[in-house]
Design brief:
Keywords: Hydrolase
Largest sheet: 3 strands, antiparallel
CATH architecture: 2-Layer Sandwich
GO molecular function: peptidyl-tRNA hydrolase activity; ribosome binding; translation release factor activity
Protein name: Aminoacyl-tRNA hydrolase
CATH class: Alpha Beta
Oligomer: single chain
Number of domains: 1
Number of strands: 5
Distance between the termini: 92 Å
EC number: 3.1.1.29
């Protein structure tokens, strides 16, 4: 079990890992060893997550989510397979934790009287500047 929060835990069978060759520096080792980890997690069909968390997770995943609702996380930051595996799982857990937090509802506010006055004074100043541009100088 992968513990996400006190109330949410993922079954390890829900997460599929595959190993691929990492890109970037590393010399010959990069061409021979499959140290990068590609983690797949089916968000839409996961029995461990509540519906509201699934919806927020899909929004937070962005382009890492496929059309079928599978979240793909690729970890290739480290040189060893084991550390990349831990990194991928930690990133998945962190993403789900962010999705568990409900967004604070926005309460509409009205502008203060002082801010209205400042706005109108600024508009007046700007208007005077523009009026001054149009006036032709008088010849005496």
């Amino acid at each position: 079990m992968i513990q996400v929060t006190n109330s949410i835990a993922l079954d390890e069978a829900e997460v599929q890992e595959s190993f691929i060759r990492a890109s970037g520096p590393g010399g010959q080792n990069v061409n021979k060893v499959e140290s990068a980890v590609q983690l797949r997690f089916d968000v839409r069909n996961s029995p461990s997550l509540p519906e509201d968390v699934k919806a927020r997770l899909e929004r937070a995943a962005g382009k890492r989510l496929t059309n079928e609702g599978v979240l793909i996380i690729t970890a290739q930051r480290f040189r060893t397979q084991e550390r990349n595996r831990e990194d991928a799982v930690n990133r998945l857990v962190e993403l789900i934790r962010q999705a568990t937090e409900r967004p604070k509802p926005r309460r509409p506010t009205r502008p203060t009287l002082a801010s209205k006055k400042r706005r109108l004074e600024a508009k007046g100043r700007r208007s005077e500047i523009k009026k001054g541009r149009g006036a032709k100088p008088a010849f005496d």
